[in-house]
Amino acid sequence: MQLLLADQLGPHFELEEKLLLPIVDSQFSKRNYHRQKAHLIRYAQLARAKASNVETVRLESYRDLKDFPQLTSMVSGSSRSFDALSDLLKLTKLENPGFCSGKQDWNAYLAKAGKRLRLEDFYRLQRHRLDILMDSKEPVGGKWNFDEENRLPPPKPGLGLPSPYRPIEDELDNQVRAELDALEKNGKATFIGLDGPRIFPGDRVQALAALNDFITNRLDLFGPYEDAMDNRDWTMAHSMLSVPMNLGLLSPLEVVNAAVDAYKSGSARLASVEGFVRQIIGWRDYVWQLYWHFDQDYQNLNELGATAEIPAGWQDLTAKGIDANCLSSTLKDINERAWTHHIPRLMVLGNTALQRGFDPKAVNDWFIDAFADGTPWVMPANVIGMSLYADGGKMSTKPYTSGGAYINKMSNYCGSCKFKPTVRVGEDACPFTAGYWNFLSKNSERLKSNHRMSQPMAGLRRLTDLEQLLNQEQSRESL
Ligand SMILES: Cc1cc2nc3c(=O)[nH]c(=O)nc-3n(C[C@H](O)[C@H](O)[C@H](O)COP(=O)(O)OP(=O)(O)OC[C@H]3O[C@@H](n4cnc5c(N)ncnc54)[C@H](O)[C@@H]3O)c2cc1C
Ligand code: SF4
Q1: Which residues line ligand 2 (CB under 6 A)?
Q2: How far is the CA of 330 from the centre of ligand 2 (A)?
Q3: Which ligand is nearest to the CA of 430?
Q4: 227-267: per-residue pLDDT in tens?
């Protein structure tokens, strides 16, 4: 019998005829998940349980599965808890089909890459191997990426796209609400975030509708506005498909094929389709493979010795006490929907956490809990590596940080902020601009030998008001 875990709910995970779906009360007891994330997981499980070949069992804990005969299971995206479960149940383990590459493909990549791991090399190999957007051995359009056509700031009048797909709530949503209320009342769970209407697909039919909506209405503008942030438009042209993909409701290859078909039929431009394909067969798979490639200790790395606590307004998502408009708007978005797109995650949240020296492991866990698509496998590379440079450069060659100028260029947050992105010292000083120089100064010993940091470090040496700036940031009480 095959065990169906909560990230394996779509047809491509169905290997055996008989499936066992455990619904476990302790699932939400160990961490303070966003209410909408818990709702979505429970909804998706209950929806999957309706199929006739699925036997559903209600359990207190996963340990109770030991009373079942020999089970088979696909590897799940949380190595620690999966290993523990696997040891306990003596599971027959199978490779996870929720990605576009397997262990063998990763090993083939490693054999070529040696010690120098680079997304770009992995991505090109994936394009060749899967024969996606290839013209014989050359990339379609003659280039591997179209970055110079992408990365535009938000257009002044807005993107003008229709609202994204939203499922219509049904009886099952009411049942889930009642179950989660009961867990909370009995002290078995504590949630963060608002219990909003469900905005993400929770079954296969809804997931396909969300995919179709993205391909039809948003994909064409995905590339140009990939990096733009607009406080009037929380999705921009992003797909929001990480959520159904991470639940296993959509297979990444079917998502990629739908995007490639849109290019072939002329309904989406190449720059957008290539950019989108890169995110999935490139980034998503790369991050998944790195999770298994780096050992468990990777998640505890803290190269920059960052130990600051995550402020309360982050922990509970209320943004209380936070004046920086970009940051408070992002936290409010997460409070309302358990989701923001990639750039607020990296350039607002990750950037703040890096500049202010938040403890990397705590940031890693906060992202897992607060986001509807948050899973253990996705965080180490994105948070510990890319956002916080806590791995000392295994993932990226330099820390990913910027001052307010970047946020000002790529968003419309700054106009209504009490700070000014161009000011680094004084009442109006933008916490990102001041935070940028403060970060470089505090870490100058560690960063001075990194040749990719030589320009910013030279800029730091030219600052005439550095001492004043450092004193200001040292006594900063809130952002
Ligand atoms: C600090 C931080 C935290 C993140 N947390 C998560 C998370 O909890 N879950 C998650 O799935 N992704 C996470 N990402 C990656 C990325 O931000 C999200 O996948 C993306 O924002 C989801 O929205 P979307 O589906 O609209 O993506 P789109 O912009 O439409 O991109 C398409 C797909 O590409 C994949 N993708 C793109 N970038 C990445 C990446 N860096 N890593 C993995 N997959 C990627 C996703 O599956 C996504 O659905 C995080 C990135 C950062 C920097
Ligand atoms: S001025 Fe600074 S803090 Fe305010 S929105 Fe712009 S970048 Fe954010």
Answers
A1: 324-326, 404, 407-408, 413-414, 417, 419-421, 430-432
A2: 12
A3: 2
A4: 999 999 999 999 999 999 999 999 999 999 999 999 999 99
Ligand nearest to the CA of 377: 1
* Strand locations in 257-356 (E): none
pLDDT the model gives residue 240 = 98
Q: Would residue 193 be called left, alpha or beta, if left means φ above 0 and alpha means ψ between -120 and 50 degrees?
A: left
Helix (H) or strand (E) holding 271: helix 270-277
Residues facing residue 469 across a β-bridge = none
3-class secondary structure, 55: strand
Dist. CA 408 → ligand 2 center (Å) = 7
Distance 342 CA to ligand 1 centre (A): 6
Strands annotated E in 128-190: 134-135, 138-139
User: Quick check: pTM over 0.85?
Assistant: yes
With contact defined as beta carbons under 8 Å apart, do 262 and 219 qualify? Answer: yes
Distance from first CA to last CA of the chain, Å, rounded? 52
The tens digit of pLDDT for each residue in 299-310 reads 999 999 999 999
Residue with CA at minimum distance from ligand 1 atom 45: 284
Alpha-carbon span 140 to 431, nearest angstrom: 43
Checking if the pLDDT of 209 tops 90, the result is yes
Amino acid at 458: A
In which region does residue 191 sit, left (phi positive, over 0), alpha (psi from -120 to 50) or beta (all else)? Answer: beta
pLDDT tens digit sequence for 399-449:
989 999 999 999 999 999 999 999 999 999 999 999 999 999 999 999 988
d(CA 363, CA 376): 12
